[in-house]
């Protein structure tokens, strides 16, 4: 009975995580977002951001914690906090465990807490961070060695992401007022269950949002595929090779029928959380032709403005309650910035992807008909998720496969 209740609670937490992912994707794809997704390819890891913000919630109290939980998707009840910490534990220990030795995806997933040596973490927070989040904790000297600590954080991210993300913290982002840095980093390298034949990759026309077009390299296949076709949308599922367990990672390509249908599709995903589950292909069908462009994307943004737009104000303000991080009373602290960076490369063999999220905190300073072709020759959305749980790891879109990262 207890196991069934725990499984049900986990499904609810994952549904909240998916809603958070799609809300953030829609916020990023709106014309007013900064940086705008509209004129660039983009990718981010909602999982990385969700875990980093859950860790922030673990160190927050009162209305600040409630607001974090509400934005993360589940209301502000104490049980919600426990649900997100349990979700983070499931992610760190099970969902994002490496599967490469058994022939599945190579995965690295890590959390870290860098705290100024003048402060001592609360045992309850440290126990939660180390036990559930598998976080490393580091005592550092921000006040005298800010540049060195910044380099330490960057080296940690580079190591976890196998060198795909080299600098999450730009020069000057950490200074003598910084007191705490929360970090999450992940790496994913998966091979398609059925690889594309590189000798069949050919240049073809890809139509851009402004009506012009470019010649881009398209991978192709005539094998049966997991595909679903609807009035205004086609969805292609490309599974990755499994390891020795039940986990199944897959990439989904959501191709709107209209050449300029990308943004309305993003909004539909945001406004109808069940839309994704309703449009997941469930069986293989014979195909005429599959054509998917190769692409490589590197994308970074500062998430504070976007999160404020979703209703997360308190952590950035003078009213921030970050009292659950430290053992003794400290000067007023607030979140100064939330930095996120992701990379993805898709080719004939599979996918290489990485992401990192860093939260910086300062003291005092504030801040249904079948059509058997799937020709992805105009802008589309894509996501990588783990299918047994439904957990979304990456979301992105391609407006021009030729844009270099």
Describe the structure.
The protein is α+β, with helices and mostly antiparallel strands. Helix content is 29%, strand content 32%. It is built from nine helices and 17 strands. The protein has a seven-stranded antiparallel sheet with strand order 1-17-16-9-8-7-10. It has a six-stranded mixed sheet with strand order 3-2-4-14-13-12. Strand 2, helix 5 and strand 3 form a beta-alpha-beta unit. It is globular, with a radius of gyration of 21 Å. 47% of the residues are buried. About 1% of the residues have low confidence. It holds the Pfam family Serpin. Belongs to the serpin family. It comes from Urochloa decumbens. This is Serpin domain-containing protein.
Question: Can you tag this structure with a few keywords?
Answer:
17 strands; Serpin_fam; 405 residues
Contiguous helical run count: 9
Total beta strand runs = 17
Distance between the termini: 50 Å
Structural class: alpha+beta
Order of helices and strands: HEHHHEHEHEEEEEEHHEEEHEEEEE
**What helical percentage do the residues reach?**
25-40%
Oligomeric state of the chains in view = single chain
Strand percent estimate? 25-35%
| Unreliable residue stretches | 365-370
- Gross morphology is globular
- Rounded mean pLDDT is 86
Main sheet characteristics: 7 strands, antiparallel
As a whole number of angstroms, the C-alpha radius of gyration is 21 Å
Strand order within the widest sheet? 1-17-16-9-8-7-10
């Amino acid at each position: 009975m207890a196991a069934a209740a725990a499984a049900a609670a986990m499904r609810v937490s994952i549904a909240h995580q998916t809603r958070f992912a799609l809300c953030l994707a829609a916020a990023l794809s709106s014309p007013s977002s900064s940086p705008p997704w509209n004129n660039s390819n983009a990718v981010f890891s909602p999982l990385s951001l969700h875990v980093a913000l859950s860790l922030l919630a673990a160190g927050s109290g009162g209305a600040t914690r409630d607001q974090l939980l509400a934005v993360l998707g589940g209301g502000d009840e104490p049980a919600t906090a426990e649900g997100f910490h349990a979700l983070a534990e499931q992610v760190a220990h099970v969902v994002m465990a490496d599967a490469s030795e058994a022939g599945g995806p190579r995965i690295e997933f890590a959390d870290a807490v860098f705290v100024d040596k003048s402060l001592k973490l609360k045992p309850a927070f440290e126990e939660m961070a180390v036990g559930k989040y598998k976080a490393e904790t580091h005592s550092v000297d921000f006040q005298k060695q800010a540049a060195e600590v910044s380099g330490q954080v960057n080296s940690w991210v580079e190591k976890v992401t196998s060198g795909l993300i080299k600098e999450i913290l730009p020069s000057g982002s950490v200074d003598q007022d910084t007191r705490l840095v929360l970090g999450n980093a992940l790496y994913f390298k998966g091979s398609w269950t059925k690889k594309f034949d590189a000798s069949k990759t050919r240049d073809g026309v890809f139509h851009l949002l402004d009506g012009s077009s470019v010649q881009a390299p398209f991978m192709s296949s005539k094998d049966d595929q997991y595909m679903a076709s609807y009035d205004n949308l086609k969805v292609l599922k490309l599974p990755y090779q499994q390891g020795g367990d039940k986990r199944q990672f897959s990439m989904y390509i959501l191709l709107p029928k209209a050449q300029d249908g990308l943004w309305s599709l993003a909004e539909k995903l945001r406004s109808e959380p069940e839309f994704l589950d309703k449009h997941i292909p469930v069986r293989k069908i014979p195909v005429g032709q599959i054509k998917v462009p190769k692409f490589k994307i590197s994308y970074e943004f500062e998430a504070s403005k976007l999160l404020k737009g979703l209703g997360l104000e308190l952590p950035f303000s003078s009213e921030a309650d970050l009292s659950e991080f430290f053992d003794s009373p400290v000067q007023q602290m607030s979140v100064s910035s939330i930095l996120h960076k992701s990379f993805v490369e898709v080719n004939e063999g599979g996918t290489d992807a990485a992401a990192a999220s860093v939260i910086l905190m300062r003291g005092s300073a504030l801040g249904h008909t079948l059509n058997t072709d799937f020709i992805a020759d105009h802008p589309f959305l894509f996501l990588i998720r783990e299918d047994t749980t439904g957990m979304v790891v990456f979301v992105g879109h391609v407006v021009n496969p030729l844009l270099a990262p």
